[in-house]
Amino acid sequence: MKQELVFEAPKRGLPPRHLADLDEVARSAAVIELGLPAFRAKQLANQYYGRLIADPALMTDLPAAVREQVAAALFPPLLTVAHQIQCDAGETRKTLWRAMDGTTFESVMMRYPQRNTVCVSSQAGCGMACPFCATGQGGLTRNLSTAEIVEQVRTTAAALRDDFDDRLSNVVFMGMGEPLANYNRVLAAVRRIIEPPPHGFGISARSVTVSTVGLAPAIRKLADERLGVTLALSLHAPDDELRNTLVPVNNRWDIAEVLDAARYYADTTGRRVSVEYALIRDVNDQPWRADLLGKKLHGAFGALVHVNLIPLNPTPGSEWDASPKPVEREFVRRVKAKGVSCTVRDTRGREIAAACGQLAADEGGR
């Protein structure tokens, strides 16, 4: 039986307007609307994106008499920390956020020797219904606003600065939700992330990854934006028969159509596409599937593709498990033999349910 897919979020109100929802023109209009001179918009943006401050009471270049007014109009307290848990000696930190309407979702900070990454959510829950993913099994609550996405980035950048004297370098849209099902808000958030201060955080587009299970028309649309971010395609099977089950959206856009859209992305942007493949014991790890995966990807992309094998992360109630290491190594060997770059992703946060496919906004703090 095919699982029902939800591409539109349930009709729930988004939070009030926040500075991070606004582009440069809209920020100026909002400031003028408050009766303030237009140059205050640049000051506010510089405080938020440059100094990572979201409380006007701390913005010393803003007249004290208007700070309360600005706070009420442009800095509503969108998110509060409901729970936070860490592992890897504090190098991996998962945060459960509670929005103003009680909606919960998660983000994960990961520190590495050469980079610092935040994995952000684009939706509360997910409507894609992939059976091996805890988020997908929980269903979709609603889309996140642009500012709710951007706030995950800002708070992580501030924590890295304050706790580690370090900088945020990478942002991956691999948390809860299907980013391309919340296209306009995710696109706006990406623009805030990559634009230089005072209009954004100034993170390199090459260091921003947008993941998708394969919404082919949206992949093409994103390509035409020419932002230069990395596209990560969650494929998980090289044949339609299996992928129809593992990634139910395949019933709408099959592998051939999705690979064609991803190739269009690669051709348009000149960026190599990352193909994500969760390796599941006795489900999608057979040698013939490795051969088929390598053959299809080499035929579709040539050198403009890389396979990220992800050992399946355990989720509550699932009988599926990661493939044994010898099987994993043989899978990698066979994909490479077809001329396709392939590596096994370093899994972080598994013990705190912060790894790929484990985010479920569990307030129990597993």
UniProtKB/TrEMBL annotation:
Keyword set, alphabetical order: 4Fe-4S, Cytoplasm, Disulfide bond, Iron, Iron-sulfur, Metal-binding, Methyltransferase, rRNA processing, S-adenosyl-L-methionine, Transferase, tRNA processing
Binding site for [4Fe-4S] cluster: 126, 130, 133
InterPro entries tied to this protein: Aldolase_TIM (IPR013785), Elp3/MiaA/NifB-like_rSAM (IPR006638), Methyltransferase_A (IPR040072), RNA_MTrfase_RlmN (IPR027492), rRNA_lsu_MTrfase_RlmN/Cfr (IPR004383), rSAM (IPR007197), rSAM_sf (IPR058240)
Stored CDD domains: Radical_SAM
Catalytic residues of the enzyme: 106, 356
Gene3D superfamilies noted in UniProt: 1.10.150.530, Aldolase class I
Subcellular location(s) per record: Cytoplasm
Cofactors: [4Fe-4S] cluster
Disulfide-linked positions: 119-356
SUPFAM superfamilies to which the protein is assigned, alphabetical: Radical SAM enzymes
Cofactor binding comment, as recorded: Binds 1 [4Fe-4S] cluster. The cluster is coordinated with 3 cysteines and an exchangeable S-adenosyl-L-methionine.
Listed EC numbers: 2.1.1.192
Pfam family, one: Radical_SAM
Main location: cytoplasm
Catalytic activity: adenosine(37) in tRNA + 2 reduced [2Fe-2S]-[ferredoxin] + 2 S-adenosyl-L-methionine = 2-methyladenosine(37) in tRNA + 5'-deoxyadenosine + L-methionine + 2 oxidized [2Fe-2S]-[ferredoxin] + S-adenosyl-L-homocysteine; adenosine(2503) in 23S rRNA + 2 reduced [2Fe-2S]-[ferredoxin] + 2 S-adenosyl-L-methionine = 2-methyladenosine(2503) in 23S rRNA + 5'-deoxyadenosine + L-methionine + 2 oxidized [2Fe-2S]-[ferredoxin] + S-adenosyl-L-homocysteine
Binding-site residues, S-adenosyl-L-methionine: 177-178, 211, 234-236, 313
Segments forming domain Radical SAM core: 112-351
Function noted in UniProt: Specifically methylates position 2 of adenine 2503 in 23S rRNA and position 2 of adenine 37 in tRNAs.
Other notes: Reaction proceeds by a ping-pong mechanism involving intermediate methylation of a conserved cysteine residue.
Entry similarity comment: Belongs to the radical SAM superfamily. RlmN family.
Protein name listed in UniProt: Probable dual-specificity RNA methyltransferase RlmN
Annotated source species: Mycolicibacterium komossense
Source organism phylogeny: Bacteria, Bacillati, Actinomycetota, Actinomycetes, Mycobacteriales
Gene from which the chain derives: rlmN
